[in-house]
What does this fold into?
Amino acid sequence: MHPAPSVIIFTTLSGLGFGLLFWLGLGLLAPAGWVALAFFAVAYLLAVGGLMASAFHLGHPERALKAFTQWRSSWLSREAWLSVAALSIMAIYGAGLVFWGVAWTPLGWLGAGSCLGAVGATSMIYTQMRTIPRWRTWLTPALFIALSLGGGALLAGQITFAVILLPVAAVVQIAWWVRGDRALARSGTDLETATGLGHIGTPRAFEPPHTGTNYLTREFIHVVGRRHAQKLRAIAFVLGYLLPILLLGLPLPLPHVAAALAVLSHITGILASRWLFFAEAEHVVGLYYGKRVA
It folds into this structure.
């Protein structure tokens, strides 16, 4: 898949924003006044900013509102509804903390659940795609949710939970990479099944379907060199998981500076991880263009 900046920013920032809102709604930290305003401002900038970025990947952004009409069959539509619900509920909960210093606990729990639902729906947009075997696994929603909770805990200053959840997310990330590298071959999809001609022999493409670029080649076919991908994985793992855990876990001087560095490192690493998430996707349409080896 083409690793468009809009979808990378969308999945990274909205996950962090909803993760921070989850911890705020859970009530483990109950800031009030200006402190609460600062927490909710950061959370909404990340969540809403990420959702707005996703609109730039649409062919017709002006039609984005139509996504709300297909909730019966579309995870994109469900994500839109759950996002609106989560943001609306948490706005009321946040108003209670900011203006009256009151935490309406049941409302916060409902908002926290809606935030998790929104992240889960985002992950299902990718998990449901049969044409991309690398994404079609329960590890995809597990990774999205673990990163949202871990990153949200990091932003919320919930260090105890962050040093537990980030290693969990790291393990899921490694499992997702290892399983994904064999996913296309294990899916049994190849040029024989794609053309339906396998029963008469082993087909091969005499020439690619198109001599120039087109929508399919631009959007669904992106080949990453193995060595390049391995380097990016190492960068994503060190910055996204290892360094934040070390910065949080070691008794360093200036703990607030260490926490800020951990947040910046985590975001940078997850951006690299999400670039790989899309760039290594291996859509099966690439079989027709000789770009996939199943």
